[in-house]
Amino acid sequence: MTHVRSSVVVCLLAVLVSGCASGEPTKGSADPPPTSPTTVTPGSPVDLPLDAYSGTGQVEVLLRAQELLLRDCMQAKGFRYEITNAPMTRATGKNLVRRPYGLTDRAQAAEFGYHDPRAIAARSRPTPTAGPPSDAYMMALHGYTVDKPGTTAGGCMKQAIDRLSSDLDETTATLVGRLTEEARSRTADDPRVDDAVTAWSRCMAGRGFRYGSPTDAESAAWPEKPDAKEKATAVADVECKEETDLAGIWSTVEAAYQHRAIEQNAEALQHVRALLARRAARAADIVAEDTET
Amino acid sequence: MRHGGTRRALSALALALTATLGVGVSSAAAEAYGDYLTATKIRTGPSTNYTAVGVGYPGHGVVIDYAYSMAQNINGNRQWNHHTNLTTSKVGFSSDYYMDYEGWFWLYL
Fold first, then answer.
1. What is the mean pLDDT of residues A44-48?
2. Which residues span the domain enclosing B83?
3. CA contacts within 13 A on the Cβ side of A256
4. Residues of A whose CB is below 8 A from B9
5. How far apart are CA A269 and CA A175, in angstroms?
6. pTM of the predicted model, to two decimals?
7. Cβ neighbours of residue A229 under 8 Å, at least 6 residues apart?
8. Inter-chain contact A128–B30, Cβ cutoff 8 Å?
């Protein structure tokens, strides 16, 4: 079968079925959902249906507002809190999203193998102007110290989170993530994906690399720093994914399962979306207020 | 530029600074802001051997306050970040491999 490569397009299923859920995912038919073909441009981000409900588009304003609230709270307690004006998440952050089929960037594979490029290349960070945090500082900011960290936020951090996200209980806040993971799990077990992984494995074997799946290759016992063998394997991995369109097939099937999840949890997802929009509006107001003063 | 050092050396420095500056007088520390790159467990320590107290998802937002640089290796990345999930308020460690952020925080060995 020939797979046509073109720019990223995910064809959306148009079936609309109203669903009703109180925060726990609604489970529907176990039959694999029908799909429309899609292709993935190697190394490019892939948009999936549930991304629209995840709040990732609002993270930047949320982080900015959080930072301002922390500054104000810490100042009120007699501490300085440094503000950064740099973007909170990199513009190319989407390219870093950890997709379940692994590497698709040939240039990254050739240079870093399966290693995280960020762990090898130094990150640029602002120069600190003070020493490590004192216990008093940590208690005011977080409600814990480095020696005795807690498992929930306290101090100014908790106050800021409550101001922005108090109407987002944990079940609601994690619904989209849980639906995403469930769709991913079903995708991994889908016979269409299984066939694509088998084709990938056959392609790898033809090049002299014996792995049952991209996960097996990525999680092999590679050395501390990528060597020639790791890089060659990673490059073959990416090329075989292109040859078999594994990423395209995987994304297509995953999108179909996500569409089904959206249909079956429509009401709950609209509720999540409304709460996230309200939070983003609150955050935007805080940022705007600070800009005006 | 990433900064690091032993905990003992950093603690001694912190004590010296506190003595110089006085208790509660405008000391400051930096933190990094960002998000998760995929569903990521938040653990009580810097490896998968520690208990998970929650899961972070893309869109939740994080603030990282410190990290350990020589913890469990995840795809060539040995850094584990201690952070707060800004949506669920959970606090703990997650692998740096699964997080994206900008900013600076203290890095312990």
1. 76
2. 4-20+30-108
3. 21
4. none
5. 8
6. 0.82
7. none
8. yes
B window 19-38, beta carbon within 8 A of A: 23-30, 32-35, 37-38
Whether residue B25 is contained in a domain is answered as no
How far off is chain A from B97, nearest CA to CA, in Å? Answer: 7
CA distance A193 to A145: 47
- What is the interface pTM, i.e. ipTM, of the complex? 0.82
User: Sorting pLDDT into bands at 50, 70 and 90, what band is B105?
Assistant: confident
- What is d(CA A156, CA A143) in angstroms, rounded to the nearest whole number? 8
Element (H, E) at A134: none
The full set of domain ranges for chain A reads 53-292
Q: Is residue B84 part of a domain?
A: yes
Number of domains chain B contains: 1
Question: Can you say how many angstroms the Cα of residue A147 is from the centroid of all Cα atoms in its chain?
Answer: 30
B22 to chain A: which residues are within 8 Å by CB? Answer: none
**Is A98 within 8 Å of B76 when comparing Cβ atoms?**
no
Tell me the pLDDT tens digit for each residue of A159-206. 999 999 988 999 999 999 999 999 999 999 999 999 999 999 999 999
Bridge-based pairing state of the strands B80-85 and B62-68: antiparallel
Contact A152 B58 (CB under 8 A): no
Q: Report the alpha-carbon distance of residue A202 to residue A162 in Å, rounded.
A: 52
Distances in whole angstroms, Cα of residue B76 to Cα of each of A111, A124, B31, B32: 13, 19, 23, 21
pLDDT (tens digit, 9 = 90+) per residue, B1-34? Answer: 333 333 433 443 443 433 333 333 345 667 889 9
Q: What's the CATH number where B99 sits?
A: 2.30.30.40
Chain B interface includes A249 (CB < 8 A) = no
Q: How distant is the Cα of B20 from the closest Cα of chain A, in angstroms?
A: 12
